[in-house]
Each structure stands twice: as structure tokens, then as C-alpha cells.
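User: I want to check something. If I give you two sequences, will you return the structure for each one separately, not as a complex?

Assistant: Yes, each is folded on its own. Here is the first sequence with its structure:
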Amino acid sequence: MIFKVYLMRIGGRRRSWRDILNGVAYVGDLRTMTEKRGDAIYTQALLVSAGALAQSQLPALYEPVLVSIAPMALQLRGFERMQEPAGFYSVVQEWHCVTP
């Protein structure tokens, strides 16, 4: 299903509601999938751009949980994988998804 997604956190820190709605919105097909790495199985949400070359616009949201739902919107919370020179780590990320 096509959604417009707003990031509610940057580096794990919550943004103000005004900054969320006035910030960049990403439009695409919201999909969930499972991935197996070694013995672990991870669930992830992806926002895939429409078109012949489908690719993810945002980093995957790992272990997504439905936080709230409204007639034209929903919110997902999960973990985003971040990379720094010292290595990888995870932070909390929330997506505010509305129908365009």
C-alpha cells in the first residue's frame, strides 16, 4: 500500500511534532518481510519506491510494532541500524505513515 512516511526520530531522539510534519516525507510502497541471518529471524518494514527499479528509500525498520492507527494514518516503532566509524549500533525509530 502506498504511504507518505515521516521520520519521528533522528539518531534515536524524538523530534517535535511541528518538525516532523514540516520535514521531508518519503513516498512509496510500505512492505514487511522477514530475513534470516544465521540462526536469528528478523522482521522488518521497508518503504520501497514505485517504479521499474524498486529500491528502499529509508533504512529498514527492524522488529516494527504498530503503535497507533487512525482512518488515514498509522505509526510504527522499531529499530534502525546506524553506522559510525566505530561500528554499527541500533536506535529507536518511529514512522508516521499517512495516505498521500
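And separately, the second sequence with its own structure:
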Amino acid sequence: MMDAITQITYLYMLALLMALVIERVMEILNASWNYVEWQFDLHEFWTRRAKKLQARFEALASSRLWNKFLDLTGLLFQIRKKLADNKAGHSGKIPIISGDLVRNAALVVANRIAAAIMGVLFCWTTQINLIAIFNSQLKLDYKIITQMPVWLALVLSGIFLGMGAEPVHHMIQMIEKRRKK
């Protein structure tokens, strides 16, 4: 019994450590990318992308259906929050898009994809299956978990690691709460 708890604790620690390593590697990759952008003046690329996105928003703004959709879902607010430059008291329906904000949104997506790929590669090569570990601890009896193919469980475990240390931390807390019950 104690040996099993020790083994699971080591696996949790390894998963948490790997999640933290992935975060550090992503910071190094981001710094490298920033240097490449600075060397090759890629700010012009992001400005062109922002102008294309702005033109698309302007074309969509003339559509009544689009405006009703934006008003109903609050999507315009979310777009402004993520991509728009709200300086100078802009109050129109078409958001003002800046190259820097388009760049940041693209880098967030690229970072998450790269981190997930690193996590999947780690789990695949080490055969760390977090889904099976958590299932054995929580004793969940759901078909979707018990009949999950190993390759899918390894991919999902890698995605958990790639998202960073926070999901691993939350899973550990969930197991501790379950044990207390």
C-alpha cells in the first residue's frame, strides 16, 4: 500500500516538474521569437495582418445579420477585449485592430499548441498516463474513462502537461478532497 502511494507521488511530482519545464522552455522559445522578429522587422507583417483583419470587420459591419449576431452574443465585446485598441474613445461598431494585439493573439495560440505538443511527446515517450493514474485513485467507473484507448489517454495526459502546472495542481487537489471524503 505504502509503495503504491510512493510510486503515485513520484509520478505526480514528475508530471508537475515536466509541466514546469515546458513552461520554462516556452519562455525561452518566446524570447528567441522576439529576437527573430526584431532582427527581421516582422512588425510590418503583423501590421499587414491587422489591416486585413480590420478590412474583414469593416466588410462584416455592413451586414445586418452580423450586427444582430454581435449584439446578441456579446462577441464584439470579446473581440474588442482581446484584439481591439480602445484608445482615443473609440465607440463605433467596428473595432480598431492593432498589429501588436494581433501578434499577441497569434503568439498565445502558437504557445498553447507548442506546449501541448511538447507535453504529448513527453507522455508518449515516458508512457505516463495521467488518466489511468487518476482513475485508479478516484475509482471512477465511467465507460468513457475505463474503455479509453491508451494512445488517447497519453495524448490527453500530454495536453494536461502542456497546459502547465495549474491543471496538474487542480487534479492533485481533487484527489486530496476525494480522499478526505
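Because they were folded independently, the notes below concern the second chain alone. Residues 2-39 form the longest helix (38 residues). The chain is about 80% helix and 0% strand.
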